[in-house]
User: Fold these one by one.
Assistant:
Number 1:
Amino acid sequence: MKQSPLPHARLFTPRRRRINRTHISGYEVVSSVLVLLALAAVILWVVSRKNHFDPAHQDVSLEALEQVSGSTVLYQRPLKPWQLPGTTDGWQDIDLGIFPDSVASEQWRPKTRVKTFDPENLYVKINGEAERFLRHGFTQLSYLVLQSANQIEEISIELYNQGSIAGSTGIFAEHRSPESEVQQEGPNTFFTTSIGGIGRKGTFFYRISGNRSSESIAQKSRQLVQSFAELPDPENTEPFGYQLLQELTIEQADIRHQAVNVFQYDFAEDFWFGKSDGAGQAEMFVHQAQSPESAAELLAEIVEEHRYEYQTIRQTENLVLFQHRFLKSYFIIAIQDSFLFGADKTADEATSFQLLEMIGRALSKK
Amino acid sequence: MPSPFNRREFLKRIALASTICGGAGYLAWAPEEYPFSLKDVTGLRSRPEPRQFTLPDYRVATAPGMMEIGIGRDMTTEGRLTKALEPIGGLSRFVQPGDVVLLKPNVAFDRAPELGATTSPELLEVLIRRLLIDCRAKEVRVTDNPIESPADCFAKTGIKAAVERAGGRVLLPDGNAFRPLSTPDAELIKSWPCFYRPLIGVTKVIGVAPVKDHNLSGASMGIKNWYGLLGGQRNQFHQDIHTIIADLSIMIRPTLTILDGSRILMRNGPTGGDPAYVKPWDVIVAGTDQVAMDGWAFVNLLQRDASTLPHYLFLAEEKGGGKIDPAGRIQESA
């Protein structure tokens, strides 16, 4: 039978240790005692020092450090002290961002700091509705809540920068209803609601809503609208269609932009509409295409689609007049260079031609 | 004395030790994508996997002779609710003494209740009192997971105050309150984080939704209300809004759904902004078939053409969430 090579291998031997030396010198004994005493002294010193380490004991002098150091700013002091969200003390120090300073006062203090949202996170604020604003070129939302001095009433302000006048007029048009009494005060176009107001100025669109209907909220909303006149003017020049309709003496409040799905056609985009005084429900419209050829193509598509619901009354090379088969209203559209223009929902042929001529004359001057 | 080692034994032991050390070294240092590697630089590998859960069917057995949907019209919230519940057997048919009830209102925005974007706090207050006093429910929880600050939303809509007045309990979401919910028949949310914590121990679930216009889906009513239980990056579902709403119709089978037709946001939903968009009305709809209720409310409360019913209703019907046609199952209280 094969035996394991290490049957009783042990790490430690149980045998008693045998001292091989028979003599230890006095010098060795004395030096051992001295080493032990030194160790005891170190232990005593450590125990006596306890936790009282002197950090400067082995420090390099500041002068020596400065000689070999560069300058680094480790902390930039903020321009204004940080404000705990939700507190109203020190409201004057709250950075109002894009909002004019006049929105806050002793009677209406900011309840929180301004929150901003961009296209990436707009859904956080208006989940489900963000797409509507994005369609109109949304760039930034600034949100501020004001609280009355008695801490009972609150007003929320949503200030949307739509990036262009087209964007702000477009989103404003989607918010106004036929019953809205739209007012124009300087650059501000707005209508009041029972708890605030909705309006636009330049590229900005705003919604003001209080937590209830009251006289003080109505007054403050009115003052806020006036404050928004101080909002920065658009950097870009006014878009062509907007300018043109203004030249036709159409009020800013009655001008709107439709970015997509014009006349409910997915191929028609970027049209300007304006309501002329005395023309009832009729709206003039204008669109600038990339080229005369693309304008002609668009006209042909619109005319083709319109024939399903409209009856052609007159058609020339540059102009088509339709009448709706059931509503009996008129729709006229014409082409001039790269411009498509016309009038919708007119009551009669004469008005259609009259409005068309107005736009045509204004275009000719351009 | 013989040597304890012979050469063969020595080599065997060295080979064994090398294999063990090499294996351990491989497991520890091999890149994460290598087989059997235990390396975990990001910590994701050792992250605990939350367990999936499934929601039980919270519906109660249908009673013979009872309607599935009741409509109540009255000048008061109390009266409206009573009349809406009458044709379907009253609240006590659905909630028994000792039940733990979860109410899911729509608290999606920090808007004043006048704007019609959220469930009416008055209705919730009346309902909670009924559940606690008339039905002797053990507990009434109220929850929602708005993307905006939940605390602000519950405060500004007046729902927190109303719930506390009535004796209910508001449960707000936090990062640890979600677990993946398994809905095998759903298309987009087969496994999706759901606001789980308020559902623990719950025996009955009631949806209390406003009736409002919605920019993407056409309308937001009973089924869309359950969107508020979803967590994660749910905003991506807006790209396919009808499919997700149809999925919601089978994700949860609530005990009861109540549609609040006292302030109807007729346009510019889901957030509104002008009380002029809100139509004050005197209707409450209560029932067990959310699909039929949404269809009825779309035509009769939002006053839209029946030929333009939202696409999600048809998808929900296909998936078995309910039946659009309420004929023979709906009754209005006298």
Number 2:
Amino acid sequence: MAEWGEARKSSLLGKYTQRLSGPQKVTGQAKYTFDINRPGMLYGRILRSHIPRGTLTALDLSPAQQMPGVKAAIPLIEVGKEIRYEGQEIAAVAADTKDIAADAIRAIRFDYDPLDHVVDLGESMSESSPQIRDWENNQSDRQIDEKGDLQAGWTTADAVVEATYSTEVQVHTCLESHGHVAEWDGDQLTVWASTQAVFGTRRDFARHFELPEDKVRVITEHMGGGFGSKFGPGVEGQAAAKLAKETGQPVKLMLTRKGEQNTAGNRPSMVQHVKAGATKEGKLVAYEVSGYGTSGLGGGAGFTGPYVYQVPNYRTEKFNVAINAGSGRAFRAPRHPQGAFAMDSLMDELAEKIGMDSLEFRKLNDPNEIRHAEYDRGAEEIGWNRRQKVAGSAPGIQKRGIGVGSGQWGGGGGKGTKARVNINSDGTVEAVTGTQDLGTGIRTAIAIIVADELGLQPTDITVKIGDTLPGLPSGGSGGSQTTPSVAPVVKTAAMAAKESLINHLAEKVNVVADEVVIKEGSVTIGNNQLSWKEAASTLGMETISEEGSWDENLREGGAAGAQFAEVEVDTETGQVKLIKIVAVQDCGLIINRLATESQINGGVIGGIGYALLEDRIMDGQTGRSLNSNLIDYKVAGAQEIPEIRAIAHDTDRKVTGIGEPVTIPTAGAIANAVYNAIGVRVRSLPITPDKVLTALEEA
Amino acid sequence: MQGASCVEPIDWVEVWLSNRGDPAHLHLSKDGCRIHIRYLVQEVCPTSRLVIQGGQMAEDTTRSTDQPEDRQKDLHQVNKTGLSRRNFLKGLGTGAVAATVAPATLAEADSHSATTGAEITRATVKLSINQQVYQIEVEPRTTLLTVLRDGIDTGGQRIDLTGAKEVCDRGACGGCTILVDGRSVYSCMMLAIDAEGKEITTVEGLADDNELHPVQEAFIEHDALMCGFCTPGFVVASKAILDQNPNPTREEIQAELSGNICRCGTYPFIFEAVASAAKKMK
């Protein structure tokens, strides 16, 4: 079993390393799928439904097909089928230019018989709602989970809180929209894909076109954000490849911003009615929740709960509600931010009711020791003792408050990655594996691991990822699994390559392997010292090429996190201004501290949008989204960013993933800070000025 | 409502004319409306680069009169706003942009000329991009961003400057930021024909003989990028800020960069990078 050794002594592991892709990205040289221009390439575009529901009665592609510059038009739905949401694909075209493709889409004629739609969660559950999918009253089966003796729990409770919490539908809003460039050469398909899973995408393309997998190549050199929404070709990828096949020319088809916002996934909403009880000594004893949410027409709505804290007796009931809207997809820590916001708010409410400090109450119910340390560290950093002792008691119009939130994630990685490290006779080193870099920095992490093992610098390593061609598969980048899945295999590959070089050199000069030491860019053999290049040149016609293997001992799951927020609420305008956020995140063994801090910042900022700004707004009458653009759908911008203290809580354990856990606690911390400031609780995200003012008015 | 030639059911219309680089916002009231808009659209008009957003739906009168039976049914479905849902939906049925505006006059025009692109004229423009002159044939509607990314010069050479990104396609995100005569401009909001005679600099043109601009260096050093898709826009915008204001405070940096969006959440390190580049450039 391999070990990371004493990482703190490494000059690379856990230190600040600049991203290898930095120079390409700041000069515009980094080519994303969106930037791929192939010789003879056509531009694809999708005609989407503007109605939420209806039966397609006619579809005429001929006006588009007859336009000069249009090379192909294909249907994406059969006449007679039901259109089920705004943005559903009707047809696709390929044309010489982007503008002609847009003209062609407008020229296509279709007709339909409208059907009654529903886009509101509550309305969909009512008896008067149209039945829009195969669930009774548009509601999926209840998932019920029970533990302990709930009745006994209530009898021991000294304080009980009952509340309803809700969260909005959040849209991924990847800046590079979903899309592909597809190119056929005979029966060989090459696809540049904006994807989180090159191998999964290859498999899906192969299945769709009934090709052997080795006839499909998927390339993702750089990609502009996925956040859980980019795991397969989707209708758009299939359409791109089909158009390319039909025209015999490469086709680029990227979703428009509107298509992206309406159809490429979202974080489902949540409504939960919860009741919980605690003893006056501060122990949670009973928890009961009934909750639901909508992810559009699909499943996958839900929330974690009870969350983080131990409750001996509980009953939970959760289900999905269907509406006529684009379906949800995995979104950075699926189900957790919803659950955490509600649980963190609930914990605050209970603590107040039993007259206990909120942090003390949490510690009494949180079994995770790492998080206890994080609570202490974060409390000191934010100045927890400055918190309003009585919520809302500060004088003045602008009131400040402090709150805390918690999170927990798995992220331990898993088997399935193949990786290879090559040492060439000119001294160059290649690390090859089939993972992909979403922006998390795995490319640089791989270079750090290999360089650390071989005594080189990360910039000495050529990392080849994001391509299925070398045939070294790796899983999709989801669940914060990438680094803990890839790192062990890369590490063992580098170890094997190093061992091979040592054995080669030892054999060459006839010494035992122990006498060969590779360190800090040079190789010592007995009393002789060779530079790395000189040592590699002894390989002559040979190349060292070693595969790594999975090693359980190099990775670990279970990352705990805690965040603290300080806010200032204007009680006249309802505006919540963030003052500071402290994020203390268990990061296991850190490979690149710089990228880790970036991830923490990013998670917090995603959480800020979730807490205060983002909300997909559907219009009940038309069944259409009112904000499927970047003007009206508000993601956090430069002006919304407070001081953020990203603390990578270094536990020196083993490698883990943190992309997701860092976005979980933010909304709860902000919501609790708002309460601490104004003494009135807003139980619904996003906490917009109108909700704050309404809450103040009703108080 | 039947036979209405203008747009009675429309509550508000927002028009952006983007042929001057900066969008003009025109809010047209119901009474003041002189555009023939038959459908609620949120689309880019192909001939005039016009973005329209409508607050409510106009009725497709042509279709209603053509289909008397439908019309009869519709009468029973008129909802409380006085708007027939069926016609409302029907009106959207073609997927067509149904508004045309002569850029300066907002005169009425027939909707269908816009849908086919048949009357589009082309012109050859001379553009100076990163100190190199290109001759490119464009349509009046072609944006500068489209030329940079997808344009082919008259010699058949792809311009292929793909650093500037199309993200929102309506001047909301800054992903396509470039410099025009030294000022930062959203290239998705500027027509190519309006860029003639101006000096255009893209992110590809910032480095000097392979030596990175201090802003670019600072972005790398401070990890002011993750996925990197927004990075070219931020880099260019940051350079423009420092050209105007060599000593920005953090608040000024935040205010100046509020026209750029990053979804990965790199802002804190971007602010650090800009501050650090400012020091370096002294």
Number 3:
Amino acid sequence: MQSPDNTAAAGGIIPLDLVSGSAWVLGSVLGRTWRFSIEGTREIDPFRDRDKGVIFCFWHSQILPLAYIFRGVGVTAVVSASKDGDRATAVAQRWNHDTIRGSSSRGQLAVIRQCIRTLAGGRNVVIIPDGPRGPREEVKPGAAMIALMTNAPVVPVRAIPRRAWRLNSWDGFVIPKPFTHITVDFKAPLHPSQFTEAGTRVEQFTRSLQEALLP
Amino acid sequence: MTQHQLQWPADTFVLVPAYKAAAALNVLLPKLLNAVPASNVCVADDGSRDGTPQVCGGFDVACVSNPVNKGKGAALEQGFSHLMGDKGASWIITMDADGQHAVADLPVFLRSIAEMPDAGIIAGRRTMRPGAMPLSRICSNMLTSRFLSLLTGKRILDSQCGFRAYSGRLLAAAPCRFERFEMESEIIMRACRLGFSVNFVNVQTLYFSTQSHISHVADTLRWLRAVITIFLELRRTTP
């Protein structure tokens, strides 16, 4: 019953298929044309402080621009253990990210354990709180629970492109248009010590994260 | 005033592992729901074919199912996974489906959780005297508890009681390998090795003429093999 190491690294590099290959090429080409400006907190700088063990959270719809901007930083992202997750992992690996495979609906406890180990090792973790299947923009409690267990701060992040296509998918997946400007807003970190009321800490934390991620 | 009215903590859940226990759940769940909100109760069905999910649905209680019968440990793991991943559980109280554990004892666990928020396990300690428990059970409980105490170096007062509160921090830190009832001893051993405290609270034991899924000799031998395996593994892998 002991869960095996479920990082993608343990399974090796996943080959690109037609869909993931297209996404990788499209993302890499489009990404080169995007211009980014970073706003918000300076308390945690994800591009400098690389050994603090922080949890970044953003909506599923904003994966493309944020995975692209984080590509040089190398974060460990929770990716679903599905065919779509394989494709996302294949792209993420080519942008220097590690992945933890699983989700709130498959292998949750193994994912939580792996996230805790990753954070304890000083690596940053990305959790998509409305993934992998929604409901859209509704935070699930996993990120809050992991933060409370590890005492790691959670940084809500939003990508706001000036011009973008929005797909007709469950999450309204956002593809920023070429040459557009994208504001990446790092919100103030939510620290576990802010949530003290016994019995409702996870609930309070989840609610605060929901509020921070909404416009 | 019911315990329900005493306010149940939002992050504490009751998990009932169940195998072929539809009839027993029909008795247990109404009592349980008098004390605990339905949203804080989950049944982990271990591949029963007796309509357990339908019984749970009738009471508006969540049910997670293993597709085939794997064992109590696997059912518990499935339930832990659901309650921590989907519900954000900080504490999970497990109680058997067969009605051996008294709903009236739940406040004892809640009080202990409030008093010992950093504990790993708060386990029920049953009354081990003839009349309250079958003699064979008393003997096997005493022997296994003593043996586990010897292996862990901690005083384990009841190694077999399934009425327990597990902290989410422990469950996240201690993946178990055994899928049957040995898992309940394994997690005590892992908790002790990881430095979590294992505390005991006195609980009632209600013995009825319910069908037990335990085969004494075979299961005791399997238990013995499991705890020795875990003991050797922990000695080898942790400083």
Number 4:
Amino acid sequence: MNILASLQPQLCDKFETQAFDLKRDDLAQVIVEKKIWRAVMDYLKEEAGFVTLLTITCTDWIEEERFELNYIFAHETKRCDLMLSFSIARDGESVQTLTDRWPQAEVMERDLHEMFGIVFEGHPNLASFALENWHHTPPLRREFDTLAFVNEHFEFRKGREENVDVKAEAKRLRALKKAKAQAEAEAKKEKGADDADE
Amino acid sequence: MKEGFLIEQERLEHEAAASLKSSGLINDIIRYFRKKSIFVLAYGTGCGAIEMPPTFTSRYDAERFGIRGAATPRQADVIVVSGYLSFKTLRRIIHTYEQMASPKYVIALGSCTINGGMYWDSYNTIKQLDKYIPVDMYANGCMPRPEALLEAFIALQKKIENDEEPSGWERYLENIEWYRQNQRAVLGEDIKPAYEADWYTEGR
């Protein structure tokens, strides 16, 4: 039997899961409340065999005023992944760090801190990662207007003076070529007729 | 019957030779050797860095024109900015460029360095490279082939040969305050290292 399908009743008996969504044979999503996510994660690691943390992602549900954090785990022997999701408030709510369980979570959490502004409690170093000296809104939050930021901070090079609409120009050139070919053909025809007369 | 690359080389070298303007024997000799020993810093910034290995290895063999790699900025004459530049990389590029000994040249490869290219609406990449460091030669395209990079090098050699004033590093020294201002606008105040070199504090 599929390991994820067999995991579903165990997990739902043990914890109050909000949803268990079996997306594929080898992929499932568990949605829990924030207060029990550490317990569920420990169970997944110690009992259920999901020993590898693949990545941490964040979904910005701006209409519902929440971030959804997704922790994706891989099973130690079987080919299947499990996604553990829970929601936090968009502003002012922090999350416990996962670096005590998986050291590789350090860069992932730093990245999330930089791109979404989520604070991870107990993280050893939340310094800037890919962006340096960034004092604006974290750029992957949906209220950050990329185009407005670009227009404010950069000026664009002016286009060439002979800048023309490429399609219209191609059409014009095709028409010119056609007219020229036609004129040539007519001239040849007339010439042929003259030759025949002589 | 000549091989294709020999014909190409003949054409490129002929073009370079035809444009020669003499300005004294010593100057000519200096410029000749400067032209024929271009050391390129082994540093790639964006996706265009992948075009540089074929340019310098056996397939396109840039060394037949005297163009080869250099390991450190102190030994290099040319830096190829190959593709988009994020703020973080721009800081390193400025740092590297100022470590290079003059005469030094910049080749900007790809459309990202000209107007942002496909990253025109990105919050994290600069749009015009020549606002931050002086550019001597552009090779446009996305991505330019190694042939285009080679032609940019040949054009740069012609420029060195003709000694067209002012070249990029001279413009950089003259307009250092303007460049600094643009750099500060995107990188913030702490551009390292803090400059105390005489060329910066006293001018040329």
